[in-house]
Specification:
By secondary structure, the chain is of the alpha/beta class. The protein contains twelve helices and ten strands. The strands form two sheets. An eight-stranded parallel beta barrel has the order 1-2-3-4-5-8-9-10, surrounded by seven helices. Strands 6-7 form a two-stranded antiparallel sheet. The protein binds orotidine-5'-monophosphate. Keywords: Decarboxylase, Lyase, Pyrimidine biosynthesis.
Amino acid sequence: MKPFGERLYAAMEDRGPLCAGVDPHPALLDAWGQTDSATGLERFALTATEALAPHVAVVKPQSAFFERHGSAGVAVLERVIATAREAGALVLLDVKRGDIGSTTQAYADAYLDPRSPLAADAMTASPYLGFHSLDPLLETARAHDAGVFVLALTSNPEAPQVQHARTPDGTVAGEVLASLRELNAGEEHGSFGAVVGATIGETEEDLDVGGPLLVPGVGAQGGTPESVRRIFGTAVHRVLPASSREILAAGPAPAALVATARATADAYAALLT
Ligand SMILES: O=C(O)c1cc(=O)[nH]c(=O)n1[C@@H]1O[C@H](COP(=O)(O)O)[C@@H](O)[C@H]1O
C-alpha cells in the first residue's frame, strides 16, 4: 500500500478536495426524521456514508456522536468505517486523542492497526501533552501507511489561549507545525497533517508542513474559499476542506447530499491549481 499522504493526494485529484464529516448531531437526526437513539443513528450515519463515500476523497466520522449511544453507537461507527472504505473513500476518524505515551500506543492499536475493527486510514490527535507523547501514533501510522492529523490552530474561539502562547522559539502552534514539517521532511506529500481552522483569520505561522492541511470551519462555521485562500497563501495546494453540518443539512435525500458535497468540492478545487 502507498503511504497515506500519497493516497490522499491521489484521491483529492481524482474526487476533488473535500472531507465530508459524518457528525450525527441530535438536531440533525431530528431534522432527518430520526429518533436520537442507536437505531436513528444507524439510519442517519449509513444513509450519509452510502451517499457520500463513493463521491468524496475523505469521510470523517466524528467519534463522539457515535460514542454517546454506547456500544451500539460504536458498532455503527465500525460499519460506517467499513462502508466508506468499501466505497473507495479514505476514512479519517475524528477522535482527537492524546495521552501519555504508553496509553497512546493503545489508541494507536485501536484506530490505526488494520487488525482493529475501528481501524481507519488516518485519525486526529491532540498534541497538548507534548508533541512527542504522540510518537506511538506516529510510529504506528508509519508502519501501516496511515496518517495522523495533529491539532495546530483550531477553529474554536477559545483556541488562541493555548495555541498562540509564546515559547522560547515562537508559539505553541508554531512548534506543532515545525514538528510536523520535520516528520514529513523529504516527502512531496507527507502523511502527517496539521489541523488549521478556516476561521482563524490572519496568521504569521508557516503553514506548509509538507503534508496535508485539514481545514474544518468551512460552511457552518463561516469559512469560505476566499478566507481559505487568504489564510493559507502558498500552502493552499495542501488544503483539504472539511465540512459536516452544511452538507448533512441537505439530507436525507442522497442526491441532495451528493449535490451539496460536489458543490463544496468544486468551490475549493480552484484553490489547488
Ligand atoms: O479536527 C477537526 O475535525 C476539527 C478541528 C477544528 O479546529 N474545528 C472543528 O470544527 N473540527 C471538527 O470539524 C467538524 C466541524 O463540523 P461543521 O462545523 O459542522 O462543518 C466537527 O466534527 C469538529 O469536531
